[in-house]
Amino acid sequence: MTKSEQQDIEDAIQEILRDSGKGEGADPAAAEQAAEADAAGIEPEQGAEPQPEPVQPGSAEAEELVALRAERDDLRDRFVRAIADAENARKRSDRDRKEAEQYGGSKLSRDLLPVYDNLKRALDSVTDEQRAAASALLEGVELTMRELVSIFAKHGIEKISPETGEKFDPNMHQAMFEAPVPGTNAGEIIQVMADGFMLHDRLLRPAHVGVSSTPAS
């Protein structure tokens, strides 16, 4: 084969490659994109993608869409209610815990009140002669009384100590008897028999009192 014939063959090959975008003079970027598209199996764009057809009212697709929306709304409502129930349960739990902390010992506190009553009666009934003769014993009783009152205060127990002449309060006092007393008005306290007590904001025991029944003048 002569050099002229060989050159003609090479020129023909280059022309074929140039026409296919792979030969000399071809755009390298275009050739690279074409190669990547061939490797990925991507077809050249032929135009915009077709838009889906609108759902026709009354069709099976429309009924299915309505059912899905109803199911979505129902699930959303259930979710909201579940959150509200959980929040209410948390609040109830906090309230029960606080009440247990504040009022859980109310029965024990109520059972200790007679101890206070006995100590108070013992101290109130001591005469001067007895105090002089048994001063050490009385000091021990007074110390016990102070410690008991201190423990009451520590746990939110406050004393209700009405005075004679005060108006009877059925929310705080319990009338143990009624008697006509000259110089008093009906409903006035004429005697305090036992102190009352509050546990925080709850009545632990009303004060035991006597009330005048003398009609108001």
Automatic annotation (TrEMBL):
Matching PROSITE patterns:
GRPE (PS01071)
Q: Name one GO molecular function term.
A: protein homodimerization activity
Q: Cite the Gene3D superfamilies for this sequence.
A: 3.90.20.20, Head domain of nucleotide exchange factor GrpE
Please give the coiled-coil regions recorded for this protein. Answer: 72-103
CC terms in the record's Gene Ontology section: cytoplasm
InterPro entries associated with the record: GrpE, GrpE_CC, GrpE_head
Flavoprotein among the record's keywords?
no
In this chain, the stretch annotated as Disordered covers 1-64
Keyword match Coiled coil? yes
List GO BP terms, alphabetically. protein folding
Give me the stretches of Basic and acidic residues compositional bias: 16-25
Compositionally biased, Low complexity: which spans? Answer: 26-64
Q: Supply the alphabetized keyword list.
A: Chaperone, Coiled coil, Cytoplasm, Stress response
Q: Where in the cell is it found?
A: Cytoplasm
Pfam family, any one: GrpE
**Record family assignment:** Belongs to the GrpE family.
PANTHER family with a match to the protein in the record: GRPE PROTEIN (PTHR21237), GRPE PROTEIN HOMOLOG, MITOCHONDRIAL (PTHR21237:SF23)
Assembly, in brief, is: Homodimer.
Purpose: Participates actively in the response to hyperosmotic and heat shock by preventing the aggregation of stress-denatured proteins, in association with DnaK and GrpE. It is the nucleotide exchange factor for DnaK and may function as a thermosensor. Unfolded proteins bind initially to DnaJ; upon interaction with the DnaJ-bound protein, DnaK hydrolyzes its bound ATP, resulting in the formation of a stable complex. GrpE releases ADP from DnaK; ATP binding to DnaK triggers the release of the substrate protein, thus completing the reaction cycle.
Question: Which HAMAP family does this chain map to?
Answer: GrpE (MF_01151)
* UniProt name for this protein: Protein GrpE
Q: Which organism is it from?
A: Mesobaculum littorinae
